[in-house]
Amino acid sequence: MKILVIGDTHGKLNKVRDIWPKLTDIDLIAHTGDHFSDAQKLAEELHVQVAAVRGNCDSTGPDQEIIETEYGKILLVHGHREHVYYDLSTLKYRAMEAGCCAALFGHTHCSLITEDEGIWFVNPGSLTLPRDESSGSYAIVRTADESFDASIVYYSTVMGGKKTPSGGFVRSILNYSDRF
Asked: The CATH number of the domain where 156 resides is what?
């Protein structure tokens, strides 16, 4: 299965529309929240299955979804309820409780791929409002019976423009904490 992971679109879909023609064989779009209605628009417009959750800026939509893949179940959440700005432990335990091998999340607007205790964590960043000084990013997740592969793709790599981000997860914690 090949999954396009996007999130934190905040009502701005032009960059998604830009990259879509360059993608091939996408089985599913996973939208990690903040503008649940964007996911619905993409499903109608692109004629592809979309799994989506609501973010902290949404009033409708589910808080989580479980995506079934050949590799196993993947948890889809926004991340604000799991306090992903601070650490991934709450998200890890939610994934474990749900029997998931991976978790897709957003909220920080910064991309991340990491693994802990056999669980993969993928944050696509944000194509429209990145907080990592990049031109925006998304993730591609590929699953098979025995493999899970995830990669971050920067908008500039596909469309040209500003190159790479600076800083990282710790910088985003310090500069963009929820402070509540």
From this structure: 3.60.21.10
Q: Residue 63 sits in which domain range?
A: 2-175
Report if residue 90 sits inside a domain: yes
**In-domain check, residue 23:** yes
Q: What is the pLDDT along the chain (180 residues), one digit of tens a residue?
A: 999 999 999 999 999 999 999 999 999 999 999 999 999 999 999 999 999 999 999 999 999 999 999 999 999 999 999 999 899 999 999 999 999 999 999 999 999 999 999 999 999 999 999 999 899 999 999 999 999 999 999 999 998 865 555 555 554 444 444 443
Domain count, the chain: 1
Burial of 121 (0-12, 13-18, 19+ CB in 10 A): buried
The structure's pTM equals: 0.88
Beta-carbon neighbour count of residue 115 at 10 Å?
13
Q: Are 3 and 67 in contact (CB under 8 A)?
A: yes
47 burial type by CB count under 10 A (0-12 exposed, 13-18 middle, 19+ buried): exposed
